[in-house]
Design goal:
By secondary structure, the protein is of the alpha+beta class. The chain contains 3 helices and 5 strands; from the N terminus they run αββαββαβ.
Length: 95
């Protein structure tokens, strides 16, 4: 019973890719813990992926990280390496 309760409280980080126009895509990261600034991971994503990124405020989802291009693998890998998330916490969506 306790194990089921803990699994229900498991916090997932959703990594999605959105098609903008033509070949342009946008990667969003939602659900990261709110107890620290999101700007530091954005700077790390930008440095590793050589792309632009920003933190936007969404009414329903809170703070969402947006990175240009299809950076799903890079963002997941960087979060695991930095200790921001475990690999089983990451939910990758898209295509």
């Amino acid at each position: 019973m306790l194990i089921c309760f803990l699994l229900a409280l498991r916090i997932y980080i959703h990594v999605r890719v959105q098609q903008r126009n033509g070949r342009k895509t946008l990667t969003t990261v939602q659900g990261m813990a709110g107890d620290y600034s999101k700007k530091k991971p954005v700077e790390a994503f930008k440095k590793k992926s050589a792309c632009h990124g920003t933190v936007t405020e969404h009414l329903e989802y809170g703070e969402v990280i947006q990175v240009q291009g299809d950076q799903r693998k890079n963002t997941c890998q960087l979060q695991v390496e930095a200790g921001l998330a475990e690999s089983d916490q990451l939910e990758v969506h898209g295509f």
